[in-house]
Amino acid sequence: METIIDIYGKKHKVGCLGCDLRKGKTPGAGVVLSTKHFEVEQDTEIPIPAFMIVVSRRHLKGFGDLTRPEQREFIDVLAKVRKAMEKVLGIKVVYIFQNEDSSSHFHVWMFPRFKWMDKFGNKIESVRPIMEYARKKMKTKKILGEVASARDKLKKYL
Ligand SMILES: [Zn+2]
Predict the structure, then answer these.
(1) Residues in CB range of 152: below 8 A, 6 or more apart
(2) 122 alpha carbon to ligand 1 midpoint, in Å?
(3) Exposure of 36 by Cβ count < 10 A (0-12 exposed, 13-18 middle, 19+ buried)?
(4) For the segment 13-46, what is each residue's pLDDT rounded down to a tens digit?
(5) Span 53-58, mean pLDDT?
(6) Who contacts 21 (Cβ-Cβ below 8 Å, separation ≥6)?
(7) How far is the centre of ligand 1, averaged over its atoms, from the C-alpha of 51 (Å)?
């Protein structure tokens, strides 16, 4: 068991976060797209608008474990969400990561770049400081409102 603190400041004890969110054991920050093999949702712990996570419904570790139907659906989901981020929210740059050692449950980060992030630098080395800043300083009413609004717009479009 691990303890996480969600974007609203609430603590949750989780076994596998990916599985607990799928089963509704842990309330998430909102699903924007639900398909046969995947769900796409606002990140539970980091309050950055449109920071989306693609999670497999099955508990699996990495791309090597995806079945053919999952592989095909995955690329459709990723492309669809990426297009929606641009079309609905005007997001021009997105970083996409999958870290096999960050959790035992397959999930892909779709991390949007915003102008305010420039002071943390660019590229992969800027991501951790941006996330730490967001975790510590951005759980405000205003920003949580922006997170919810981005999520709802994406959901409506998708
Ligand atoms: Zn799992």
Answers:
(1) 30
(2) 31
(3) exposed
(4) 999 999 999 999 988 999 999 999 999 999 999 9
(5) 97
(6) 28, 39, 41, 44, 55
(7) 20
